[in-house]
Amino acid sequence: MSTFAEILLNGLSLGSVYALIALGFVVIFRATEVVNFAHASLLLAGGYVTAVLHDDIGFWPALLAGIAGAALVGAAVEFLVMRRYRGTDHSVLAIVTIGVDILLTTELTRRIGTDVLTLGDPWGDAVLRLGPISLAHTRIAAFVAAALLITAFLLAFRYTSWGVAMRAAAESAETAALMGVRLGRVSMGAWAVAGGLAAVAALFLTVFPTPGLERATSLAALKAFPAAILGGLDSTTGALVGGLLVGVTESLATGYQSDLTFLGRGLGDLAPYLVMVAILLIRPAGLFGTKELARV
Amino acid sequence: MSEVLVKPLRPVRSRTYLWAAGGVVLLALPFYLDRFWLQAGLFAMAAAIGAIGINLLTGATGQLSMGHAFFLAVGAYGYCVFAADGGDGLTGLGLPTWLAAVLAVLVAGAAGGLFSPISGRLSGAYLGIATLALVFIGQHVMFNAHDLTGGANGRDVPPLSLFGLTFDDRELLVAAVPFGSAEKLWYAGLVLLAAGALFARGVLRGRPGRAMNAIRDHRIAAGVLGVPVARHRAAVFVLSSMYAGLAGVLLALVFQRTVPDYFGITLSLEYLAMIVIGGLGSVSGAVAGAVFVSLLPQLLTRYSDALPLVSAPGTGGIAPGEASRYLYGAAVVLVVLFLPGGLVGAAARRHVGPRSGEIHPGEER
Asked: Does residue B10 form part of some domain?
């Protein structure tokens, strides 16, 4: 039972990190209707900046720099690429983000090479023991940080003028523009926020017990895609639930791997995708996604 | 439709000559090129077949797929399983190799069909990410189903033999030129590519093609006009998987060994890059993009000494593979922003002249 509780808690922590990534993904989709396949590379960029700087300027400034760096990269992508597109087909823009992803990932993986970079976090491999349950400090930090950020984000989304502008733009871009919402600024803000959230997620994807920032980190970040999809692409609640679901499933599949050997090794990495396929079979728009209604 | 009518008639005869000349050159190449270039050309042909498949799906029907690598893998491994004789301790059915190739393509199609509950109902990014799952499931199976796939080390590919001719490295002298596997496969590749291209062109120009474009441009209008949307989406998905399976078989024959690492997410992205660069929705676009994306790394590898910034792998500079990824990544972005319609669209626009009206990306030409 104690292992089950441990696995569950670890899964929730991991899931909250996925939720952070998925949230950024959903924010971009809501603000601009673009599916951002370059999201994993934004995350890698944030993690890389933190990893490079932490030796010189200390961990917390480096983390801030990483967040700012990823936000800047996101905003730059929006400004230099997305804004230049004059067509109306959003699926074509999704393919552009794939091109951006190829560029950014190639550059970052070339810089990282075969190294495993540490991010210099203060938690190390310390473990907290609560009776029979032991939890790594990093996992607790991940959960707390993700919970705080998500709450702050949701509050801002609801109550600040920035959030109102973004929701208005998502509702109807044209009306919002007529009401004086500056759509360019809204979408650039969305990209920057998504980048910042991804940079925080990068930290928690690479701390103990994972070895550090490496090429494969972007594959781990990809698991936020199924999280966003199974929750429903246009729903922030969906991103949270999806993230937690994916995290817990992955953790369970990894934790009980020894009982599932007939399915092969490394099942944990596969679990998020299996869950997504299963849910899409039942609900094609995801758990919380709005069903597409069209008036002709 | 009206655009098709007002298109100026092209001089048919000069185009026929052009095709004939191109065909003769392609047929003659094995007599002149060395093995490196023949193999590069074969990769391009296999990529072209796969790209035609994904262009039917993503370009013509508007269904984003990131799972193309999975179906390539099904084709490649399917061929191995059907054709191998089990001598290396792995499962092999020992069927005649041509039959194995056909069955591999059918299995890839069946795999696409199994996915039809999802491919028929979803579109856009949802489908893109759902198909992402296929790549990861495929990798998992490839690494773990050791009896079928040989695990991480992969398995050897038995050479194709057809009408008593074996496409292996036993040399055969044709007009004083030694023919190895690359030379022989070159012709098989040409035949397959030509057949695949003609079939796809037929699909695009006929009734199904109109229906597919209608689904892409306006799903509801297509449904109202009586196009069974879900069935068409699923059917195109199956067809595109079969093209991918065929490309996988050809790739396996060229590589002579299949390894799971090759069939990753990068490969899927490469195929998407091909059709975007070449031109969405047309056969010629798929072929042009495939040639561009698959020859680029080979060119850069071959001439890495002569190029600035590019250096041999492992020497610290930008390796040719990376350099080519930069180039086609940038090409994807630039083409979408500045050349809607891709390379082929740009060429067609020059041909027709600047004032004959807009050419929309993906329009059948």
From this structure: no
